[in-house]
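In keeping with the milestone schedule agreed at the kick-off meeting, the structural modelling team has produced records for the first pair of proteins. Each record is given below as a sequence line and a C-alpha coordinate line. The laboratory manager (R.T.) confirmed that both were archived under the project's standard naming scheme.
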Amino acid sequence: MLINLLLGLLCVFWAACAVHKLADINSFTHNLKQYQWVPPIHANVLVVGLILVEAICATLLLLPTFQLIGLFLAGALLLAYSGLIALNIYSGNQDFDCGCLFGSQEQRLSVSLLWRNAGILLLHVIAAIGVQFAAPSASDVLISILFGAVTLLIGVIAQQLFRNQSHINAVRR
Protein backbone atom coordinates (compact mmCIF):
# COMPACT_ATOMS: atom_id res chain seq x y z
CA MET A 1 0.00 0.00 0.00
CA LEU A 2 2.83 2.43 0.83
CA ILE A 3 4.39 1.86 -2.57
CA ASN A 4 1.06 2.66 -4.22
CA LEU A 5 0.84 5.90 -2.24
CA LEU A 6 4.40 6.75 -3.26
CA LEU A 7 3.59 6.02 -6.90
CA GLY A 8 0.56 8.29 -6.66
CA LEU A 9 2.68 11.08 -5.20
CA LEU A 10 5.27 10.72 -7.96
CA CYS A 11 2.58 10.57 -10.63
CA VAL A 12 1.00 13.80 -9.39
CA PHE A 13 4.45 15.37 -9.05
CA TRP A 14 5.36 14.71 -12.69
CA ALA A 15 1.93 15.77 -13.93
CA ALA A 16 2.25 19.01 -11.95
CA CYS A 17 5.73 19.58 -13.41
CA ALA A 18 4.38 19.23 -16.94
CA VAL A 19 1.34 21.42 -16.27
CA HIS A 20 3.50 24.07 -14.60
CA LYS A 21 5.77 24.32 -17.64
CA LEU A 22 2.89 24.18 -20.10
CA ALA A 23 0.93 26.88 -18.24
CA ASP A 24 3.74 29.40 -18.80
CA ILE A 25 5.61 27.96 -21.74
CA ASN A 26 7.18 31.31 -22.65
CA SER A 27 8.72 31.65 -19.19
CA PHE A 28 9.96 28.05 -19.29
CA THR A 29 11.49 28.63 -22.73
CA HIS A 30 13.24 31.76 -21.42
CA ASN A 31 14.50 29.92 -18.33
CA LEU A 32 15.81 27.03 -20.40
CA LYS A 33 17.78 29.43 -22.61
CA GLN A 34 19.62 30.70 -19.52
CA TYR A 35 21.23 27.32 -18.90
CA GLN A 36 24.68 26.56 -20.27
CA TRP A 37 25.42 23.10 -21.69
CA VAL A 38 21.90 22.56 -22.99
CA PRO A 39 22.08 20.25 -26.01
CA PRO A 40 22.04 22.17 -29.31
CA ILE A 41 18.43 21.33 -30.08
CA HIS A 42 16.00 23.95 -31.34
CA ALA A 43 14.52 25.57 -28.18
CA ASN A 44 10.88 24.88 -29.08
CA VAL A 45 11.59 21.21 -29.78
CA LEU A 46 13.43 20.85 -26.47
CA VAL A 47 10.71 22.62 -24.48
CA VAL A 48 7.91 20.53 -25.98
CA GLY A 49 10.00 17.39 -25.61
CA LEU A 50 10.66 17.96 -21.91
CA ILE A 51 7.01 18.70 -21.19
CA LEU A 52 5.98 15.61 -23.14
CA VAL A 53 8.46 13.36 -21.31
CA GLU A 54 7.22 14.63 -17.94
CA ALA A 55 3.61 13.92 -18.98
CA ILE A 56 4.63 10.46 -20.23
CA CYS A 57 6.34 9.74 -16.88
CA ALA A 58 3.14 10.66 -15.02
CA THR A 59 1.06 8.48 -17.33
CA LEU A 60 3.37 5.47 -17.09
CA LEU A 61 3.30 5.67 -13.29
CA LEU A 62 -0.47 5.17 -13.47
CA LEU A 63 -0.26 1.99 -15.50
CA PRO A 64 0.80 -1.00 -13.37
CA THR A 65 2.44 -2.78 -16.31
CA PHE A 66 4.62 0.24 -17.13
CA GLN A 67 5.37 1.67 -13.69
CA LEU A 68 8.96 0.44 -13.59
CA ILE A 69 9.66 1.95 -17.02
CA GLY A 70 8.04 5.20 -15.86
CA LEU A 71 10.19 5.26 -12.74
CA PHE A 72 13.40 4.72 -14.73
CA LEU A 73 12.43 7.36 -17.29
CA ALA A 74 11.50 9.86 -14.57
CA GLY A 75 14.71 9.10 -12.67
CA ALA A 76 16.80 9.61 -15.80
CA LEU A 77 15.07 12.93 -16.47
CA LEU A 78 15.65 14.02 -12.87
CA LEU A 79 19.33 13.07 -13.15
CA ALA A 80 19.62 15.07 -16.37
CA TYR A 81 18.01 18.11 -14.72
CA SER A 82 20.31 17.75 -11.71
CA GLY A 83 23.41 17.38 -13.87
CA LEU A 84 22.52 20.52 -15.80
CA ILE A 85 21.91 22.44 -12.58
CA ALA A 86 25.21 21.20 -11.10
CA LEU A 87 27.18 22.18 -14.21
CA ASN A 88 25.70 25.66 -14.17
CA ILE A 89 26.38 26.11 -10.44
CA TYR A 90 29.95 24.88 -10.90
CA SER A 91 30.55 27.36 -13.72
CA GLY A 92 29.05 30.24 -11.72
CA ASN A 93 26.03 30.58 -13.99
CA GLN A 94 23.32 30.42 -11.33
CA ASP A 95 21.74 33.85 -11.19
CA PHE A 96 18.48 32.94 -12.95
CA ASP A 97 15.22 31.13 -12.29
CA CYS A 98 15.57 27.35 -12.49
CA GLY A 99 12.18 26.91 -14.20
CA CYS A 100 11.29 24.35 -11.55
CA LEU A 101 7.92 23.45 -10.20
CA PHE A 102 5.67 25.69 -8.07
CA GLY A 103 4.96 29.31 -7.56
CA SER A 104 5.28 32.49 -9.50
CA GLN A 105 8.34 33.54 -7.51
CA GLU A 106 11.77 32.88 -8.90
CA GLN A 107 13.83 30.01 -7.58
CA ARG A 108 17.51 30.55 -8.30
CA LEU A 109 19.88 27.69 -8.99
CA SER A 110 21.42 26.45 -5.75
CA VAL A 111 22.86 23.39 -4.10
CA SER A 112 19.57 23.02 -2.21
CA LEU A 113 17.90 22.22 -5.56
CA LEU A 114 20.37 19.37 -5.98
CA TRP A 115 19.54 18.05 -2.50
CA ARG A 116 15.82 18.33 -3.25
CA ASN A 117 16.30 16.40 -6.50
CA ALA A 118 18.37 13.77 -4.68
CA GLY A 119 15.48 13.27 -2.24
CA ILE A 120 12.98 12.97 -5.07
CA LEU A 121 15.30 10.53 -6.87
CA LEU A 122 15.50 8.44 -3.69
CA LEU A 123 11.69 8.22 -3.70
CA HIS A 124 11.88 6.91 -7.29
CA VAL A 125 14.41 4.27 -6.26
CA ILE A 126 12.28 3.15 -3.29
CA ALA A 127 9.22 2.96 -5.56
CA ALA A 128 11.16 0.96 -8.17
CA ILE A 129 12.20 -1.57 -5.55
CA GLY A 130 8.64 -1.78 -4.21
CA VAL A 131 7.05 -2.15 -7.65
CA GLN A 132 8.95 -5.36 -8.17
CA PHE A 133 7.18 -6.92 -5.16
CA ALA A 134 3.69 -5.36 -5.41
CA ALA A 135 0.73 -5.90 -7.69
CA PRO A 136 -1.47 -2.77 -7.51
CA SER A 137 -5.15 -2.85 -8.41
CA ALA A 138 -7.17 -0.09 -10.06
CA SER A 139 -8.55 1.10 -6.70
CA ASP A 140 -5.01 1.32 -5.31
CA VAL A 141 -4.04 3.56 -8.22
CA LEU A 142 -6.99 5.92 -7.60
CA ILE A 143 -6.24 6.13 -3.87
CA SER A 144 -2.60 6.75 -4.73
CA ILE A 145 -3.46 9.65 -7.04
CA LEU A 146 -5.69 11.20 -4.38
CA PHE A 147 -2.94 10.83 -1.76
CA GLY A 148 -0.41 12.31 -4.18
CA ALA A 149 -2.62 15.30 -4.91
CA VAL A 150 -3.19 16.03 -1.22
CA THR A 151 0.50 15.64 -0.42
CA LEU A 152 1.45 17.91 -3.30
CA LEU A 153 -1.03 20.53 -2.08
CA ILE A 154 0.46 20.38 1.42
CA GLY A 155 3.92 20.76 -0.13
CA VAL A 156 2.84 23.84 -2.09
CA ILE A 157 1.36 25.40 1.04
CA ALA A 158 4.50 24.66 3.06
CA GLN A 159 6.75 26.06 0.33
CA GLN A 160 4.68 29.25 0.17
CA LEU A 161 4.86 29.61 3.96
CA PHE A 162 8.64 29.28 3.85
CA ARG A 163 8.87 31.88 1.10
CA ASN A 164 6.65 34.30 3.05
CA GLN A 165 8.35 33.73 6.42
CA SER A 166 9.65 37.33 6.57
CA HIS A 167 6.14 38.68 5.97
CA ILE A 168 4.69 36.36 8.60
CA ASN A 169 7.30 37.51 11.12
CA ALA A 170 6.50 41.15 10.34
CA VAL A 171 2.80 40.55 11.03
CA ARG A 172 3.59 38.88 14.36
CA ARG A 173 5.47 41.98 15.58
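The second protein of the pair:
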Amino acid sequence: MRRLTIGTLACLVTIRVLAAPNVILVMADDMGWAQTGYYDHPVLETPNLDAMAANGLRMDRFYSGAPQCSTARATVLTGRTNDRTGVLTVGSSINKQEKTLSTAFRNAGYTTAHFGKWHLNTVNTPDHPMPLSDPHNPGELGFDYWLSETNQFNLDPLFSRNGTAERIQGESSEVLVDETLAFIEQAHRQDKPAFVLLWYASPHRPFEALEEDMEAFEDWPEASRVHHGEIVAMDRSIGTLRQGLRDLEIAENTLVWFTSDNGGLPTFTVTRASSGEVLPGVVPDSTGHLRGFKNSFYEGGIRVPGIIEWPGHLKPRISNFPASTLDMFPTLIEVAGLDPDDMNEVHDGISLVPVFDAEPPRRGRPLGFRVQGQLGWLDNDYKLIYYRDYDKAMVDGVWDKEIFDSLTQEWELYNLIDDPSEQDNLIERQPDIAARMKAELTAWSASVDRSTEGADYPEGRVLPSGRAEPE
Protein backbone atom coordinates (compact mmCIF):
# COMPACT_ATOMS: atom_id res chain seq x y z
CA MET A 1 0.00 0.00 0.00
CA ARG A 2 1.35 3.42 -0.99
CA ARG A 3 2.23 5.53 2.03
CA LEU A 4 1.11 9.17 1.96
CA THR A 5 3.69 11.76 2.93
CA ILE A 6 2.90 14.54 5.34
CA GLY A 7 2.98 16.97 2.44
CA THR A 8 0.50 14.89 0.43
CA LEU A 9 -1.83 14.63 3.41
CA ALA A 10 -1.70 18.37 3.92
CA CYS A 11 -2.52 18.88 0.26
CA LEU A 12 -5.52 16.55 0.46
CA VAL A 13 -6.82 18.29 3.59
CA THR A 14 -6.46 21.67 1.85
CA ILE A 15 -8.38 20.42 -1.17
CA ARG A 16 -11.16 19.10 1.07
CA VAL A 17 -11.45 22.38 2.96
CA LEU A 18 -11.44 24.51 -0.18
CA ALA A 19 -14.11 22.33 -1.76
CA ALA A 20 -16.33 22.55 1.32
CA PRO A 21 -19.50 24.61 0.80
CA ASN A 22 -20.18 27.82 2.64
CA VAL A 23 -23.23 27.47 4.87
CA ILE A 24 -25.54 30.32 5.91
CA LEU A 25 -28.43 29.59 8.28
CA VAL A 26 -30.94 32.44 8.12
CA MET A 27 -33.65 32.79 10.75
CA ALA A 28 -36.53 35.25 10.96
CA ASP A 29 -38.00 36.11 14.35
CA ASP A 30 -41.76 35.53 14.87
CA MET A 31 -42.49 35.20 11.14
CA GLY A 32 -45.59 33.09 10.64
CA TRP A 33 -45.82 30.11 8.30
CA ALA A 34 -48.18 31.93 5.93
CA GLN A 35 -46.31 35.23 5.66
CA THR A 36 -44.80 34.77 2.20
CA GLY A 37 -45.91 35.52 -1.32
CA TYR A 38 -45.46 31.91 -2.36
CA TYR A 39 -48.22 30.97 0.09
CA ASP A 40 -50.46 33.65 -1.44
CA HIS A 41 -50.48 36.03 1.51
CA PRO A 42 -53.29 38.56 0.89
CA VAL A 43 -51.14 41.62 1.68
CA LEU A 44 -47.43 40.81 1.68
CA GLU A 45 -45.20 40.48 -1.35
CA THR A 46 -41.94 38.65 -0.75
CA PRO A 47 -40.33 38.44 -4.20
CA ASN A 48 -36.91 37.40 -2.94
CA LEU A 49 -38.12 34.61 -0.70
CA ASP A 50 -40.41 33.54 -3.53
CA ALA A 51 -37.43 33.36 -5.89
CA MET A 52 -35.41 31.45 -3.33
CA ALA A 53 -38.25 28.95 -2.86
CA ALA A 54 -38.66 28.54 -6.62
CA ASN A 55 -34.95 27.85 -7.00
CA GLY A 56 -34.51 25.53 -4.03
CA LEU A 57 -36.12 22.95 -1.78
CA ARG A 58 -39.33 24.44 -0.39
CA MET A 59 -40.35 22.51 2.71
CA ASP A 60 -44.05 22.93 3.38
CA ARG A 61 -43.94 20.89 6.61
CA PHE A 62 -40.92 22.42 8.28
CA TYR A 63 -41.03 22.78 12.06
CA SER A 64 -39.22 24.78 14.65
CA GLY A 65 -37.84 22.55 17.37
CA ALA A 66 -39.78 24.65 19.90
CA PRO A 67 -42.47 27.36 19.77
CA GLN A 68 -40.35 30.04 21.45
CA CYS A 69 -37.31 32.13 20.64
CA SER A 70 -34.45 30.90 22.86
CA THR A 71 -35.67 27.33 22.92
CA ALA A 72 -35.81 27.13 19.12
CA ARG A 73 -32.33 28.60 18.73
CA ALA A 74 -30.88 25.96 21.02
CA THR A 75 -32.22 23.24 18.72
CA VAL A 76 -30.41 24.76 15.73
CA LEU A 77 -27.12 25.01 17.54
CA THR A 78 -27.14 21.48 19.00
CA GLY A 79 -29.54 19.20 17.11
CA ARG A 80 -31.09 18.48 20.52
CA THR A 81 -34.43 19.43 21.98
CA ASN A 82 -34.12 22.57 24.08
CA ASP A 83 -34.57 21.01 27.53
CA ARG A 84 -31.53 18.78 26.97
CA THR A 85 -29.38 21.89 26.52
CA GLY A 86 -30.44 23.85 29.61
CA VAL A 87 -32.59 26.24 27.56
CA LEU A 88 -35.84 25.57 29.36
CA THR A 89 -37.65 28.74 28.30
CA VAL A 90 -37.18 32.20 26.80
CA GLY A 91 -34.04 33.88 28.12
CA SER A 92 -32.35 30.72 29.42
CA SER A 93 -28.64 30.37 28.75
CA ILE A 94 -27.34 27.32 26.95
CA ASN A 95 -25.12 24.87 28.82
CA LYS A 96 -21.51 25.46 27.84
CA GLN A 97 -20.92 21.71 27.88
CA GLU A 98 -23.07 21.37 24.76
CA LYS A 99 -21.40 20.31 21.52
CA THR A 100 -22.34 23.07 19.09
CA LEU A 101 -22.72 23.27 15.34
CA SER A 102 -20.37 26.25 15.26
CA THR A 103 -17.60 24.30 16.98
CA ALA A 104 -18.11 21.38 14.60
CA PHE A 105 -17.65 23.70 11.63
CA ARG A 106 -14.61 25.33 13.18
CA ASN A 107 -13.05 21.94 13.83
CA ALA A 108 -13.61 21.14 10.15
CA GLY A 109 -11.54 24.15 9.05
CA TYR A 110 -14.33 26.69 8.65
CA THR A 111 -14.32 30.28 9.84
CA THR A 112 -17.49 30.88 11.85
CA ALA A 113 -19.63 33.94 12.59
CA HIS A 114 -22.88 34.95 14.22
CA PHE A 115 -24.80 38.03 13.10
CA GLY A 116 -27.93 39.35 14.82
CA LYS A 117 -30.11 38.07 17.63
CA TRP A 118 -28.52 35.58 20.02
CA HIS A 119 -30.84 35.07 23.06
CA LEU A 120 -28.94 32.08 24.43
CA ASN A 121 -27.42 34.05 27.28
CA THR A 122 -28.84 35.52 30.47
CA VAL A 123 -26.75 38.66 30.89
CA ASN A 124 -28.84 41.71 29.96
CA THR A 125 -27.26 45.13 30.49
CA PRO A 126 -29.05 48.40 29.68
CA ASP A 127 -26.01 50.09 28.16
CA HIS A 128 -24.43 47.19 26.24
CA PRO A 129 -26.01 44.62 23.90
CA MET A 130 -23.64 41.86 25.04
CA PRO A 131 -20.42 42.52 26.95
CA LEU A 132 -17.34 40.41 26.43
CA SER A 133 -17.66 39.32 30.06
CA ASP A 134 -20.92 37.53 29.24
CA PRO A 135 -19.97 33.86 29.73
CA HIS A 136 -22.45 32.75 27.08
CA ASN A 137 -21.61 35.16 24.27
CA PRO A 138 -21.21 33.62 20.78
CA GLY A 139 -17.42 33.68 21.07
CA GLU A 140 -17.70 31.29 24.01
CA LEU A 141 -19.71 28.83 21.94
CA GLY A 142 -17.68 28.30 18.79
CA PHE A 143 -17.89 31.56 16.83
CA ASP A 144 -14.72 33.24 15.62
CA TYR A 145 -16.54 36.49 14.91
CA TRP A 146 -19.82 37.97 16.12
CA LEU A 147 -21.93 41.07 15.67
CA SER A 148 -24.74 40.30 18.05
CA GLU A 149 -27.47 41.50 20.39
CA THR A 150 -28.97 39.52 23.26
CA ASN A 151 -32.53 40.20 22.16
CA GLN A 152 -34.29 42.88 20.09
CA PHE A 153 -33.20 45.62 17.68
CA ASN A 154 -34.66 47.52 14.73
CA LEU A 155 -33.54 50.71 12.97
CA ASP A 156 -30.01 52.00 13.68
CA PRO A 157 -29.26 48.94 15.83
CA LEU A 158 -26.80 48.79 18.70
CA PHE A 159 -24.71 45.62 18.44
CA SER A 160 -21.80 44.02 20.20
CA ARG A 161 -18.92 43.44 17.80
CA ASN A 162 -16.84 40.78 19.49
CA GLY A 163 -17.70 42.37 22.84
CA THR A 164 -17.42 46.05 21.88
CA ALA A 165 -20.64 48.06 21.63
CA GLU A 166 -21.22 49.69 18.25
CA ARG A 167 -24.24 51.47 16.82
CA ILE A 168 -24.72 51.06 13.07
CA GLN A 169 -26.97 53.31 11.02
CA GLY A 170 -29.53 51.63 8.83
CA GLU A 171 -32.34 49.09 8.69
CA SER A 172 -31.24 46.17 10.84
CA SER A 173 -31.92 43.34 8.38
CA GLU A 174 -29.93 45.15 5.70
CA VAL A 175 -27.13 45.91 8.15
CA LEU A 176 -26.84 42.23 9.04
CA VAL A 177 -26.69 41.10 5.41
CA ASP A 178 -24.06 43.72 4.55
CA GLU A 179 -21.94 42.49 7.46
CA THR A 180 -22.50 38.86 6.48
CA LEU A 181 -21.40 39.46 2.90
CA ALA A 182 -18.30 41.34 4.06
CA PHE A 183 -17.37 38.43 6.31
CA ILE A 184 -17.91 35.83 3.60
CA GLU A 185 -15.98 37.88 1.03
CA GLN A 186 -13.01 38.07 3.37
CA ALA A 187 -13.18 34.32 4.01
CA HIS A 188 -13.37 33.70 0.26
CA ARG A 189 -10.25 35.81 -0.34
CA GLN A 190 -8.47 33.75 2.30
CA ASP A 191 -9.63 30.50 0.66
CA LYS A 192 -11.56 29.46 3.76
CA PRO A 193 -15.12 28.15 3.82
CA ALA A 194 -17.51 30.09 6.04
CA PHE A 195 -20.27 29.04 8.40
CA VAL A 196 -22.65 31.87 9.35
CA LEU A 197 -25.72 32.21 11.54
CA LEU A 198 -27.72 35.18 10.23
CA TRP A 199 -30.45 35.66 12.81
CA TYR A 200 -32.80 38.60 12.21
CA ALA A 201 -34.83 40.33 14.93
CA SER A 202 -37.64 41.00 12.45
CA PRO A 203 -40.61 40.93 12.56
CA HIS A 204 -40.61 40.60 16.38
CA ARG A 205 -42.05 43.27 18.67
CA PRO A 206 -41.36 46.14 19.26
CA PHE A 207 -42.05 46.97 15.61
CA GLU A 208 -40.12 49.62 13.69
CA ALA A 209 -39.87 50.00 9.92
CA LEU A 210 -38.92 52.49 7.24
CA GLU A 211 -41.79 54.59 5.90
CA GLU A 212 -41.28 53.36 2.35
CA ASP A 213 -41.56 49.76 3.52
CA MET A 214 -45.00 50.44 5.02
CA GLU A 215 -46.52 52.22 2.02
CA ALA A 216 -48.33 49.17 0.68
CA PHE A 217 -50.16 48.68 4.00
CA GLU A 218 -51.61 52.15 4.60
CA ASP A 219 -55.17 50.83 4.95
CA TRP A 220 -54.24 48.46 7.79
CA PRO A 221 -53.92 49.10 11.55
CA GLU A 222 -50.66 50.71 12.60
CA ALA A 223 -49.14 47.66 14.29
CA SER A 224 -49.87 45.51 11.25
CA ARG A 225 -48.40 48.16 8.92
CA VAL A 226 -45.12 48.26 10.79
CA HIS A 227 -44.96 44.50 11.29
CA HIS A 228 -45.36 43.88 7.57
CA GLY A 229 -42.92 46.68 6.79
CA GLU A 230 -40.26 44.78 8.74
CA ILE A 231 -40.88 41.70 6.59
CA VAL A 232 -40.59 43.78 3.42
CA ALA A 233 -37.15 44.99 4.51
CA MET A 234 -36.09 41.50 5.55
CA ASP A 235 -37.16 40.10 2.19
CA ARG A 236 -35.19 42.84 0.41
CA SER A 237 -32.11 41.90 2.43
CA ILE A 238 -32.55 38.28 1.33
CA GLY A 239 -32.35 39.55 -2.24
CA THR A 240 -29.16 41.43 -1.39
CA LEU A 241 -27.68 38.27 0.14
CA ARG A 242 -28.49 36.11 -2.88
CA GLN A 243 -27.19 38.71 -5.34
CA GLY A 244 -24.08 39.25 -3.24
CA LEU A 245 -23.22 35.55 -3.39
CA ARG A 246 -23.66 35.63 -7.17
CA ASP A 247 -21.45 38.71 -7.45
CA LEU A 248 -18.73 36.93 -5.49
CA GLU A 249 -19.22 33.93 -7.81
CA ILE A 250 -19.74 31.61 -4.86
CA ALA A 251 -23.52 31.06 -5.03
CA GLU A 252 -23.08 27.49 -6.29
CA ASN A 253 -20.73 26.75 -3.42
CA THR A 254 -23.02 28.20 -0.74
CA LEU A 255 -25.96 26.50 0.95
CA VAL A 256 -28.49 29.01 2.32
CA TRP A 257 -31.19 27.70 4.67
CA PHE A 258 -34.06 30.02 5.64
CA THR A 259 -36.60 29.51 8.40
CA SER A 260 -38.26 31.23 11.37
CA ASP A 261 -37.67 30.61 15.06
CA ASN A 262 -41.34 29.92 15.82
CA GLY A 263 -44.85 30.57 14.59
CA GLY A 264 -46.41 33.96 13.97
CA LEU A 265 -48.20 36.48 16.18
CA PRO A 266 -51.91 36.33 17.10
CA THR A 267 -54.60 38.40 15.42
CA PHE A 268 -56.14 39.48 18.73
CA THR A 269 -54.96 42.19 21.09
CA VAL A 270 -53.21 41.00 24.23
CA THR A 271 -52.67 42.99 27.41
CA ARG A 272 -49.81 41.83 29.54
CA ALA A 273 -51.23 41.35 33.02
CA SER A 274 -47.82 42.03 34.62
CA SER A 275 -47.25 45.44 33.02
CA GLY A 276 -50.55 46.51 31.48
CA GLU A 277 -48.81 46.88 28.11
CA VAL A 278 -51.24 46.55 25.20
CA LEU A 279 -49.99 44.45 22.30
CA PRO A 280 -52.22 44.85 19.23
CA GLY A 281 -52.77 41.78 17.10
CA VAL A 282 -51.41 41.37 13.59
CA VAL A 283 -53.81 41.12 10.67
CA PRO A 284 -54.22 39.42 8.24
CA ASP A 285 -53.62 36.10 9.97
CA SER A 286 -49.90 35.25 10.12
CA THR A 287 -50.42 31.47 10.18
CA GLY A 288 -53.05 31.08 7.47
CA HIS A 289 -55.25 28.05 7.95
CA LEU A 290 -53.07 26.70 10.76
CA ARG A 291 -54.35 26.76 14.33
CA GLY A 292 -52.47 28.65 17.02
CA PHE A 293 -49.61 31.13 17.13
CA LYS A 294 -46.22 31.62 18.79
CA ASN A 295 -45.89 29.66 22.08
CA SER A 296 -48.54 27.18 20.94
CA PHE A 297 -48.01 23.47 20.26
CA TYR A 298 -50.62 23.64 17.52
CA GLU A 299 -49.29 23.88 13.96
CA GLY A 300 -49.40 27.68 13.91
CA GLY A 301 -46.92 27.77 16.79
CA ILE A 302 -44.34 25.36 15.43
CA ARG A 303 -44.75 25.03 11.65
CA VAL A 304 -42.59 27.71 9.99
CA PRO A 305 -41.29 28.67 6.54
CA GLY A 306 -38.46 26.44 5.37
CA ILE A 307 -36.29 26.84 2.25
CA ILE A 308 -32.89 25.40 1.32
CA GLU A 309 -31.18 26.91 -1.70
CA TRP A 310 -27.95 25.44 -3.07
CA PRO A 311 -27.66 26.20 -6.79
CA GLY A 312 -26.27 23.36 -8.85
CA HIS A 313 -26.74 20.87 -6.01
CA LEU A 314 -30.45 21.00 -5.18
CA LYS A 315 -33.07 20.72 -7.89
CA PRO A 316 -36.04 23.01 -7.28
CA ARG A 317 -38.99 21.17 -5.80
CA ILE A 318 -41.61 21.24 -3.06
CA SER A 319 -41.40 18.76 -0.20
CA ASN A 320 -44.04 17.69 2.31
CA PHE A 321 -41.61 15.59 4.32
CA PRO A 322 -41.85 16.54 8.03
CA ALA A 323 -38.55 18.19 8.94
CA SER A 324 -37.24 20.40 11.71
CA THR A 325 -34.53 22.73 12.97
CA LEU A 326 -33.40 19.66 14.93
CA ASP A 327 -32.36 18.17 11.58
CA MET A 328 -29.98 20.99 10.65
CA PHE A 329 -26.95 19.69 12.55
CA PRO A 330 -27.22 16.06 11.30
CA THR A 331 -27.82 17.29 7.74
CA LEU A 332 -24.84 19.63 7.75
CA ILE A 333 -22.57 16.91 9.10
CA GLU A 334 -23.22 15.08 5.86
CA VAL A 335 -23.23 18.13 3.59
CA ALA A 336 -20.01 19.69 4.89
CA GLY A 337 -18.14 16.59 6.01
CA LEU A 338 -18.18 17.50 9.69
CA ASP A 339 -17.04 15.03 12.31
CA PRO A 340 -20.11 13.18 13.67
CA ASP A 341 -18.38 13.05 17.06
CA ASP A 342 -18.73 16.84 17.22
CA MET A 343 -22.46 16.40 17.81
CA ASN A 344 -23.73 14.88 21.05
CA GLU A 345 -24.49 11.20 20.56
CA VAL A 346 -27.88 11.81 22.19
CA HIS A 347 -29.69 14.04 19.72
CA ASP A 348 -33.13 14.37 18.20
CA GLY A 349 -32.76 15.05 14.48
CA ILE A 350 -31.96 13.19 11.28
CA SER A 351 -30.06 14.04 8.11
CA LEU A 352 -32.29 15.50 5.41
CA VAL A 353 -29.80 14.78 2.61
CA PRO A 354 -32.04 11.96 1.27
CA VAL A 355 -34.81 14.58 0.93
CA PHE A 356 -32.63 16.72 -1.33
CA ASP A 357 -33.30 14.50 -4.33
CA ALA A 358 -36.47 12.54 -3.52
CA GLU A 359 -39.41 12.33 -1.15
CA PRO A 360 -38.96 9.52 1.41
CA PRO A 361 -42.26 7.75 2.07
CA ARG A 362 -42.03 8.28 5.84
CA ARG A 363 -39.90 9.90 8.48
CA GLY A 364 -38.37 7.12 10.53
CA ARG A 365 -37.80 9.16 13.67
CA PRO A 366 -40.68 11.17 15.19
CA LEU A 367 -40.17 14.75 16.30
CA GLY A 368 -40.54 15.53 20.00
CA PHE A 369 -41.39 18.90 21.53
CA ARG A 370 -41.08 19.86 25.19
CA VAL A 371 -41.27 23.34 26.72
CA GLN A 372 -42.30 24.14 30.30
CA GLY A 373 -44.17 20.89 30.76
CA GLN A 374 -46.03 21.07 27.45
CA LEU A 375 -45.35 18.01 25.29
CA GLY A 376 -45.72 17.11 21.63
CA TRP A 377 -44.97 14.07 19.46
CA LEU A 378 -45.12 14.37 15.67
CA ASP A 379 -45.08 11.07 13.78
CA ASN A 380 -45.66 11.68 10.07
CA ASP A 381 -49.43 12.11 9.60
CA TYR A 382 -50.28 12.29 13.31
CA LYS A 383 -49.45 14.70 16.10
CA LEU A 384 -50.09 14.05 19.79
CA ILE A 385 -49.91 16.89 22.29
CA TYR A 386 -50.28 17.11 26.06
CA TYR A 387 -51.21 20.71 26.38
CA ARG A 388 -52.88 23.57 28.19
CA ASP A 389 -54.47 25.76 25.54
CA TYR A 390 -53.27 29.37 25.86
CA ASP A 391 -56.41 30.62 24.11
CA LYS A 392 -58.55 29.44 27.02
CA ALA A 393 -56.75 31.92 29.28
CA MET A 394 -57.81 34.90 27.17
CA VAL A 395 -60.45 37.12 28.83
CA ASP A 396 -61.51 40.18 26.81
CA GLY A 397 -58.19 40.26 25.06
CA VAL A 398 -56.13 39.87 28.24
CA TRP A 399 -54.04 36.77 28.85
CA ASP A 400 -54.73 35.79 32.45
CA LYS A 401 -51.92 33.80 34.07
CA GLU A 402 -54.12 32.70 36.98
CA ILE A 403 -56.65 31.18 34.59
CA PHE A 404 -53.87 29.54 32.63
CA ASP A 405 -52.35 28.03 35.77
CA SER A 406 -55.78 26.63 36.69
CA LEU A 407 -56.14 24.79 33.40
CA THR A 408 -55.32 21.11 33.28
CA GLN A 409 -53.26 19.63 30.50
CA GLU A 410 -55.21 17.50 28.09
CA TRP A 411 -54.27 14.90 25.49
CA GLU A 412 -55.10 15.81 21.89
CA LEU A 413 -54.48 13.81 18.72
CA TYR A 414 -54.74 15.15 15.18
CA ASN A 415 -54.31 13.76 11.69
CA LEU A 416 -52.42 16.63 10.07
CA ILE A 417 -52.99 15.41 6.54
CA ASP A 418 -56.76 15.10 6.79
CA ASP A 419 -57.11 17.95 9.29
CA PRO A 420 -54.23 20.47 8.98
CA SER A 421 -56.25 23.07 10.93
CA GLU A 422 -56.49 20.68 13.92
CA GLN A 423 -60.21 20.97 14.49
CA ASP A 424 -61.00 17.27 15.00
CA ASN A 425 -59.45 15.80 18.16
CA LEU A 426 -59.12 12.02 17.60
CA ILE A 427 -57.92 11.10 21.08
CA GLU A 428 -61.04 9.05 21.89
CA ARG A 429 -61.62 7.61 18.41
CA GLN A 430 -58.07 6.43 17.69
CA PRO A 431 -57.11 4.72 20.99
CA ASP A 432 -54.48 2.40 19.49
CA ILE A 433 -52.59 5.21 17.77
CA ALA A 434 -52.92 7.40 20.85
CA ALA A 435 -51.61 4.66 23.16
CA ARG A 436 -48.60 3.94 20.94
CA MET A 437 -47.69 7.59 20.62
CA LYS A 438 -48.14 8.24 24.35
CA ALA A 439 -45.74 5.41 25.14
CA GLU A 440 -43.17 6.73 22.67
CA LEU A 441 -43.50 10.28 23.98
CA THR A 442 -43.19 9.14 27.58
CA ALA A 443 -39.99 7.21 26.83
CA TRP A 444 -38.53 10.14 24.91
CA SER A 445 -39.39 12.60 27.68
CA ALA A 446 -37.68 10.34 30.21
CA SER A 447 -34.57 10.50 28.04
CA VAL A 448 -34.81 14.30 28.06
CA ASP A 449 -35.08 14.22 31.85
CA ARG A 450 -31.77 12.35 32.00
CA SER A 451 -30.21 14.91 29.69
CA THR A 452 -31.32 17.85 31.83
CA GLU A 453 -29.39 16.33 34.73
CA GLY A 454 -26.24 16.15 32.62
CA ALA A 455 -26.21 12.43 31.80
CA ASP A 456 -25.05 13.15 28.22
CA TYR A 457 -21.96 15.10 29.31
CA PRO A 458 -18.61 13.51 30.14
CA GLU A 459 -18.90 14.84 33.69
CA GLY A 460 -22.28 13.16 34.12
CA ARG A 461 -23.76 16.38 35.48
CA VAL A 462 -24.38 20.00 34.49
CA LEU A 463 -21.45 22.10 35.67
CA PRO A 464 -22.29 25.30 37.57
CA SER A 465 -20.88 27.42 34.74
CA GLY A 466 -23.36 25.77 32.43
CA ARG A 467 -26.24 27.86 33.72
CA ALA A 468 -24.67 30.46 35.98
CA GLU A 469 -21.40 32.04 36.89
CA PRO A 470 -19.35 29.83 39.25
CA GLU A 471 -19.28 31.06 42.83
